[in-house]
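Inputs:
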Amino acid sequence: MSTITEPTPTPSSAPSSHPSTTKTGGGAFSPKQLVTALPGALRKLDPRSMWRNPVMFIVEVGAAITTVLAVVEPFAPALRESGGTEMAPSFTIGIAIWLWLTVIFANLAESVAEGRGKAQAQSLRATRTTTAAQRVVAYDAVTDASAEHAIVEETASADLHLGDTVVVVAGELIPGDGDIVWGIASVDESAITGESAPVVRESGGDRSAVTGGTRVLSDRIVVRITSKPGETFVDRMIRLVEGASRQKTPNEIALNILLATLSIVFLVVVLTIGPIAGYSDAAPSVVVLIALLVCLIPTTIGALLSAIGIAGMDRLVQHNVLAMSGRAVEAAGDVTTLLLDKTGTITYGNRQASEFLPLTGVGAAELAIAARASSLSDPTPEGKSVVDLADRQGHGEDTASGSMERPGEVVPFTAQTRMSGVDYADGSMVRKGAASMAVEWVRSAGPVASGTIAELDQIVTRVSEDGGTPLVVATRSASGDARILGVIHLKDVVKTGLVERFADLRRMGIRTVMITGDNPLTAKAIAAEAGVDDYLAEATPEDKMALIRREQEGGNLVAMTGDGTNDAPALAQADVGVAMNTGTSAAKEAGNMVDLDSDPTKLIDIVRIGKQLLITRGSLTTFSIANDVAKYFAIIPAMFAGAYPGLEALNLMQLHSPGSAILSAVIFNAIIIVILIPLALRGVRYRAASASGILGRNLLIYGLGGVIAPFIGIKLIDIVVSLLPGF
Amino acid sequence: MSPLRGTSRQYWVAIRAMLVLTLLLGVLYPLVITVVGQVAAPAQANGSLVRIDGKVVGSSLIGQGFTDADGRAQPEWFQSRPSAAGDGWDAAASSGSNLGPNSDDLVAAVGDRQSAIEKTDGAALADIPADAVTASGSGLDPHISPAYARLQVERVAQARDLPVAEVSGLVESMIQGRDLGYLGEPTVNVLQLNIALAEMDSGNQ
Amino acid sequence: MPPLLLLILQLATLALLLGIVYRPLGDYMATVFTTRKDLAVERGLYRVIGVKSDSDQSWPSYFRSVIAFSAVGIVLVYAVQRLQEYLPYALGLPAVPENLSFNTAISFVTNTNWQSYSPELTVGYTVQMLGLAVQNFVSAAVGIAVAIALVRGFARRSSPTIGNFWVDLFRGTIRILLPLAAVFAVVLVVGGVIQNFSDYTDASTIAGGTQAIPGGPAASQEAIKLLGTNGGGFFNVNSAHPFENPTGWTNLVEIFLMLVIPFALPRTFGRMVGDNRQGYAILATMVAFFIVSVAAMTAFELAGSGSATSLAGGSMEGKEQRFGIVGSTIFGTTSTLTSTGAVNSMHDSYTALGGGMAMINMMLGEVAPGGVGAGLYGILVIAIIAVFIAGLMVGRTPEYLGKKIGTREIKLASLYILVTPTLVLVGTALSFAIPAVRDDVEGTSIWNSGLHGFSEVLYAFTSAANNNGSAFAGLTANTPWFNTALAVAMFLGRFLPILFVLALAGSLAAQDRVPVTAGTLPTHKPLFIGLLFGTVLIVSALTYFPVLALGPLAEGLN
């Protein structure tokens, strides 16, 4: 059973490793996709599935009626007569063919969009294969956390229930989504994230969540299942990428209502033409009326609407983001306040030592050496950076040759002491840590001169104001004399390019708020450097929650990222909560999106995708409705000019004959769908700009363009159609 | 409160409100306006009636016919515009013809009127103004255009045996310009013109 | 003076007058509907009718009040007509027939004032005053009240209520309509509009004939007929009658009266939502339509095409000499764009395209500026549609004035825009689709034959469903079919939109307000005005193009 799949380099998953550098839209649209999607498009002709799209359903009914008429017509030539004009013998069959094509093109759009998610779904589905699970019977978390003594029974993964506990050992697939309750393991999650490097998952803390279908590479873990069968993360993901479980979003529903309304209006228009025109003996034939109806109802947007929605989700998936609902994607477009964690989002995750600041009377070298010593065994990036800095300053050799290179007991950082360091065998110690704790530590050995404290305060404040983190270095000699040496300036390094991105966001009307545990001084400095609009310093999860509530009370829509269990309430409260895939399952449950790359800056891309989704819908709706103007000018004179030659004045395009005019309008109406499929899948281009700017641009392209384009298109088609015999 | 009681209460309120408002707007308001109107502008409020020797001969605002019992135009009077009110200038049945712009009936009527004017007034077809051959909206238009008045001068003068210049002078003196110089069109009030004409005629004799 | 200059000067005068009153009247109306203070007389009236003026209503309750009040109005107007012979000042006229009474009652209560009857021959002074004039006031006040309720929906935050209908009704009547009507009624009397209780005066004409000169309380009704955008004439020919509209200057006053409240309400709206620029944007859209429309109608009438019209040498059939073509088209445009439906010239005799403009004006949905109140709520509903599409185009869940335009709002706005086109088209189609009806329509009702006859029917349903009330008056509408079908069109064309508007008001009022950011679509800039203009145009043009092609266009282009 080989279920681990390498990330398939399909167009849809290839950009996953560098999402921000690829243009949203992913793989290029190729005509080949149309061909592969064709069978699916034909299957969708089933009226039971067409029914869900009222606009296209009307077209299908029209196509069916026209087909019947095309069959009957040869036996009843009088049917050809329309509004005082005799239509060509091939007119009805021509209309019928193009109406069917209109429906097929619409289905094609949806099929193509769905097809793009299929590849990804396929690889995911492989992971869903039923596996054998080792279920712990009567798991006792207190006495037997590792479940080594418990009875284990073999169960099919599909039979696992919420709350079951399973044991997974190296080489096995994790049978379902859950949290590790005991143990630590490296896990291969490539099937889901596309990232081949294994990740570490351990019980407790924020990296305890595991996903069903991923493989444990080492060690043994006990997992509590947190999903119901068939509703695992992978199941949801498959449904999402396939578009099967796509529920219509609020805006989509509203738009559908508007489109349905327009369709009803046009249905009334067309149904009433018969009797009204009958008064002047100019009643058009049924075929002509159906052609008019199909041209008037918003088929273009009706055909592309669901493709746009699927493609929007698909774009998110290409960015390795899973939205739990389309609603969340739309909400992302509406976000007005973005809460960004400082660490990892605004600054590189690790602070780096940039300077040693010795107190008066302390040699620069002495401080550097002590600092280096305190960090030698410190595995954190900060610790390493201290060693690096000392090495760069040339104090590495001192230690290498010497005096302090000796065995000692590492004192790790704890939340209580907030210091780390080394205790040497001779009783001497070195510590680095928060200023207050370090001073306390020194004081415990003896009094500290007030001048020293004052000087230290000064340095600490200066570092904080610069946005840095001060780490105080202190030593205690073997004799027990303790003294403060100085300060390490740990600097937060702000990521490059953020200032521009935040300026973009500001133009889009989105306020950015930086969340940090730093003190207000540091927070202020970093906020200024990164260009965020506001900051929340010394933030606790409660503060964060309160901030979200406050923003929402002011009518703002808030987006945030989070990974820890203590982020869960805030993630749930936020309108858009993006949980990091590395986070706990509590966080993932609470949020409405999961970022598989666990990249907090992704939030900005998500907002962009949300907006692009709406813009594409709005623009194509405008285009679709604007098209009606030209279609009217093609069809109305053609319909009635037989009875009222004066109406020929409305034939602005100088179309060849009534028959060719109507057929050309129908053909244009069908072809435009195919032409716009790539745009629907790719999304309308979106640049950060003010609402007025975007509206002006889109109105020009899709509004004015929508009025003009069909005039040209229908005219060109008419030139071709007029060459057909009989037209 | 149950919905039913709520609804019936609404209707009870509505009935009282409607009665109160009817009293205020349907009785009090028109009465007050009538009193004010009768005091401030009695002549207008009572219909701008024109009296000769105390006898009402018409209203300066209501057009009337100057035709004989058979509806034929009397050549010695300036003629009003054609009327579709009742049998013609029936002030108890104001009405336009409501004939459409392409109506065959209207084409015929206009043609008849034009040839009649051609015959009686000796006018060239091109000189006959539109108001002379079209029925007014009310059927009670008291006015004609200065052009139509001028067109009739010769006929009237001839019929009354008056000097053309005198009648023409009278017409010119009776032309009312546009209100404020730009509201509406220049007009000649036919009744007032004819009364002045009659006065002039009787003065001459 | 060339007609173009006449047109420009008259429009400039109107612009000046309306410009002067825009702010004070708009602000005054905003104060009327927001103040907590009642006038002494109002307090007395509230006690009489049993209303607490400080208790606001939810939207369903508000709607029920509108319906209750209107239902009582219909019954009352119906009753006074049916009882006419027992009433004073009946001028010897008998009871109005049932079918006609029904049509007239609906017509006046819905602010349509379609008249299937000829007033001189049908109704005496008492019916005119007690029945019709009262409805001229209160139907207008209902329109304003509903518009104000919708504006409150935008202005209020997280509120379960949208105001008190009875308070809005009484304040609109007593503080706005009544004083203005009283002042202008007197002005009109001075201009020559009659105001008396005399019977006909018999005149012996100098040419030897007789003429019965009518009397009646015309001025008091004329002022509110125009001010409340009602349009139901005291006389058959409406404002073409010299006793309703005697001079060139009263003509301008009457046009001003039709426009003054509809054009000032955007200010009230801007004021109440706390952003006057929003009012200017709505106003600008309305004005743009008005100018384009009046220019087009005037141009068509001056061109005077049509076999009869060109033979006569000008489009003067059905027009009064004192107004001329320009004075008629400004009035006609105003009347059809404001849902007044008064006429100072016979639209049936307009050129095909000129008369077509009158129809198009109504088909726009009576929103530029529309009837008192109805115009404002109408254009705000279209604005919601425009905002929705524009909002999508800028990538945000659409919002208007800080209120999200979601599924419920779009549903209600959609239903709103669905109502009138359906009524117009279905009504017109049924007139020709049902054989018995068709025979009656073609045999009895239609006056002009051919295409123009179709236009008469189309005009009638357009006018009724949009609550305008003007007519291609050749149509004999006093038949069972038209009296019934038009009454249904008027009733549904009035109260269904009101239902949707009030539901919308409730839904908006319940929302909190979203703060404005750079990502918010500004709804006061020229771009949005253009978009709103386009939306109004496209929604109506796309609906009515085929029927227009079969009526005025086919006639005008042949």
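Confidence is low (pLDDT under 50) at residues 1-27, 399-404 of chain A. Flag for discussion at group meeting.
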